[in-house]
Amino acid sequence: MHMLQQLFDVLLPKGLLTYKKVGSNASLPNRLAAEKNERENRQGVLFVVRDKAHFANGHVKGYIITSKESLLANVDALTHFTPNVYRYGTYSDEKRLFIKGFSEDNLQQINTFVVDIDTKRHTVNELLLACMDDSIGLPTFILESERGYQLYFVLSSPLFISNKNNFRGLKVAKRISDNLKRSLKSVDADIYCNDFGFFRMPKQDNIAYVDLNNTYSMHEFINWSMRRDDDLARPLFVVPSKSQATSLTQSEWFHQLLSATDVKGEKGQMGRNNLLFTLALVCFQDGKDKSFTFDLLDQYNSTLRCPLSIKEVNTIINSAYSGKYKGAKKEYIEQLLALYVQGEVPVHLGGKCWYKHKKAREDRERSHCHEWEQDLIHYITAEKSVSEPFIWRTQKELCKAIGIPASTLNKVLKASKTIIKTTSGKGRNSVTGLTTINLFVQYATELALILSAKKSDYRKWLNDLLFEQLEEMVASNATERLVMYLSELGLIVDISRFERFANSS
After folding, report:
1. I want to staple 425 with a disulfide (CB 3.0 to 4.6 A). Which of 33, 239, 327, 430 is the partner?
2. What does the alpha-carbon distance between residue 324 and residue 333 come to, in Å, rounded to a whole number?
C-alpha cells in the first residue's frame, strides 16, 4: 500500500483533498496542516468505476471521489478511474448510480498522458525500449491488464485548463497526446484512445513497471511534440497571445475579401493566386487545419467568375501551410482590399502571436542534432549484420553515407543518449563501431538465450562476454543508460564490473 500512496502522491500532487472531510482516519494535526495547504489551490474530483461492465449502454455507473484518502481506501474495489482532475461531478439519476461531468470542457487539470497498448504481443521490456528509442522517454509507470498495457507519462506539475482563448491549453495537450500515441505505433499503441478519459486503476498486482522519478515538465512535452510535428511535416503549434481576442477569420476585412468575386488580376497586379494565398495564410495563422481551409477556399474559388483549378487551389494551400511563412502581411491585405472591395475597411491583425515555424530541412543552414541523430539511427539499423550489433565504418565513410559534416558527427555522437560508440585500431587505420541501445539489448537477450541452452553457469559467461564488449565502448550518457537497462533486464548480475559507465555523465 505504501507504493500506491507514493504513486498517487506523484500522480495527484494537487487537485484533490488529501483527507476525507467526514470520517477521516488521519490525526487532527495532519488534517489541519493539509487543509491549510489546500486553501491555496482549487480542489476538484475524480470519477471511478467498480467494473468494466459498468461502461455499457452509453451510461457510466460509478461514483465521485474528492480525496486521496478515499481513493486509497477503495482502490481494491475499483477497476477504472480518471487520473486527470475535473472541476465538478454529479449524478444523472435520482438514485445516484450514474455519473456525469467527465467531459473535456470540464477538465480542471491534466496530471498525466496515458497510452493504451491493446495487445500483449510485446513484452514490458520491448515497450520500454520503444519509449526510449521512439518517444519522449521512459514512462512513469506501466499497468498490465488481461488484454494489454497502459503507459502513464506523468507531468511534474499539472497543466491547469482554462476556457479562456478557446481552451488553448487543452488543444496543446491533445496535440501532445496524439504525438505520444503515434510515436509508439511500433508497439501497437491505440491512437484513437480517448486522450483524457477513464483508464486502469493502479493496484499492487497490476503495476508492471514503475519509476516515479520519470516525470516530465510541460515545457519538455511541448518541445518534444514540436519536433514530432516537424518530422511529420504537419503544422506546428499556433498559440495566440492574450491580446488577440478575436479570430482573424471572423474579422470584417476577411469576410469582405471572401465576398470579392470579380478577381482575375493583370500584369503587375495582385490577382486570384495572391488573394487565395493570403486567405490561406490567414487561416494558417488562425490555427485552422488544412481541411477547413480547403473547404473554405474551394467554396470561395467556385464563386469567382474565373475560378482556378482544384489542383492550383491545393498547391496554394500546401504552400501556405509549409511553415515557410509567418502569416499574411498587413500591406498585402490592404492592397487586395483596395483593388477588389469598395470602401475603406480597417485591417487589424490583433496582437503579435507566438509561432514555431521551421524552414524545410533542405533550406536550413544546419540540420538540428536530433535530426542527424535519427538519420544515424536509421542507417545503423539498416546496415547492421545479423551476427553482431555494431556496424564498422571509418569516419569518412559515415560522413559520406549520411551526408553529415565530420564536426557535426562528433557533436551528435557525444550528445546522443541512444547511440553507442566503440573504436578499433589507431590513427588512420581506426574504424568506428556504432550501435543503438535497442540493438545491443536485443543482441544481449539473444546471447543469453543461446548461452542458457549450452552452459549451466551461463550468467557468468554472459557477464564476461558483455564486459568484453562494453570495455571497448566510449563512456557516455548512452553507455550509462545501456548498463542500466541491461541490469534491469537481469542480463548483468555483477554491476560492480561496470562502474565506470555508471558515472560517465
Report:
1. 430
2. 19
Strand 149-160 vs strand 215-216: parallel, antiparallel, or unpaired?
parallel
Task: Residue 148: name the closest of 124, 117, 125, 127 by CA.
Answer: 117
Beta bridge partners of 110: 159
Question: Cβ–Cβ contacts within 10 Å for residue 196, how many?
Answer: 23
Amino acid at site 213: N
Q: Cα(201)–Cα(148) distance, rounded to whole angstroms?
A: 14
Residues 304 and 265: their CA atoms lie apart, in Å, by: 12
Backbone angles phi, psi at 482, to 5 degrees: -60, -45
Task: Assess whether pLDDT exceeds 90 at residue 112.
Answer: yes
Residues 6+ apart with CB under 8 A from 352: 241, 243
Give me the mean pLDDT over the 46-52 stretch. 91
Residue 356 has pLDDT above 70, yes or no: no
Per-domain residue ranges of the chain: 2-231, 248-355, 369-502
Classify the C-alpha dihedral 307-313-316-317 as positive or negative. Answer: positive
Highest mean pLDDT among 14-28, 244-258, 272-286: 272-286
Give every CB contact of residue 183 below 8 A, 6+ residues apart in sequence.
Answer: 134, 135, 136, 189, 228
Average pLDDT, the chain: 80
Q: List the one residue out of 157, 154, 158 whose CA is nearest residue 7.
A: 154
Q: Which residues contact 287 (CB under 8 A, 6 or more apart)?
A: 238, 240
d(CA 44, CA 53): 26
Angle 124-134/437-454 helices, nearest 10 degrees?
A: 150
Higher pLDDT, 268 or 312: 312
Backbone angles phi, psi at 202, to 5 degrees: -65, 135
CA torsion, points 137, 141, 145, 150, in degrees to nearest 10?
Answer: -40
Question: How far apart, in whole angstroms, are the C-alpha atoms of residue 65 and residue 74?
Answer: 10
Element (H, E) at 154: strand 149-160
Sign of CA dihedral 139, 145, 149, 154: negative
Q: How far is CA 499 from CA 346, 383, 471, 476, 483, in A?
A: 69, 31, 11, 13, 9
Handedness of CA 160, 226, 295, 181 (dihedral sign): negative
The pairs formed by 357-361 with CB atoms below 8 angstroms and a separation of 24 or more are 357/236, 357/323, 357/324, 357/325, 357/326, 358/230, 358/236, 358/323, 359/323, 359/324, 360/322, 360/323, 360/324
Q: Is the pLDDT of residue 326 over 80?
A: no
C-alpha cell at 111: 496530471
CA distance 324 to 360: 7
Position of cell 545503423?
380
Amino acid at 125: N
